[in-house]
Amino acid sequence: MIFIVYWAALHILFHFKMKKIKGTLTTVEAPQRVKIDTTFRQNKLTYSNYWFLVHMAIIVAIAIISILNYKALPNVIPIKYDLQGHVTSSVPKTYLSVLAINLVQLGIIALLMLVNWSIKSSKQQLTTSNPGQFAAENIQFRRKWSLFTIVTGLLLTILFAFIQINMFVPNLVLLTAISFITPVVIVLGVIWLSLTGRQGGGKIRNQQEDHERSKEQPVNDDDYWKLGFIYFNANDPSLTIEKRYGIGWTINFARPLSWVLLLFIIATVVISIVLSQ
Predict the structure, then answer these.
(1) CB-hemisphere CA count at 13 Å for 202?
(2) CB atoms < 10 A from the CB of 6, how many?
(3) What is the C-alpha to C-alpha distance for residues 223 and 232, in angstroms, rounded to an integer?
(4) What's the pLDDT tens digit per position in 148-166?
(5) Strand 249-251, strand 230-231: pairing
């Protein structure tokens, strides 16, 4: 929460500073010209959500194994441990408590499938120079993050599977190792993708490239970015759009369906937390 508040305050501060600077600059009234690649959607922008069937197969298999071994489980099931391996939280044995992890897994997979879909359906970004190369870089950018989303889902599925198997085949050393390695691999993956490419694809530009690019006049959509980072455009049918800065995607808050998706994400997180208790 501290990080979120700091992040928001930092960007709001510089948003108003930039607005003040832009207000002092001279502007030239000229028609805006936009180039659009009408074949962009014909390309394979992401990997298919059908890959998540592998994740679901693992979840179903572990759920079946858990049900078949239900009688062998102790009446009280440990669910949390400290760093020394001591049980810090446990729950009575019920079918719900045994299968709760599977329900959490399904919620996570549904969320990641939504992320993968948003990567595919997000608004096409435009440029006034070399639109063909820009589109190719953007497609590569989407496919990289789509693959990362699928691989992340698989790693989390395997992690939760080991947690569940640990209920009837305890191996705390192996579980601790996997619980540590999995998030480290995911975080390193995010860092690598973020450092090797900028938002929308392409390589991180140097100062000379930025100087040349500064000669371009981008489409002015400042009015649609409230406080600099909240996209609100009722005239835009797009549901998701690339973030204005940083890495990732955001939603068009002017679309009613975006609020439904936001509530779905919040509900998935809340239900997962409740089931994990």
Answers:
(1) 17
(2) 10
(3) 9
(4) 999 999 999 999 898 888 8
(5) unpaired
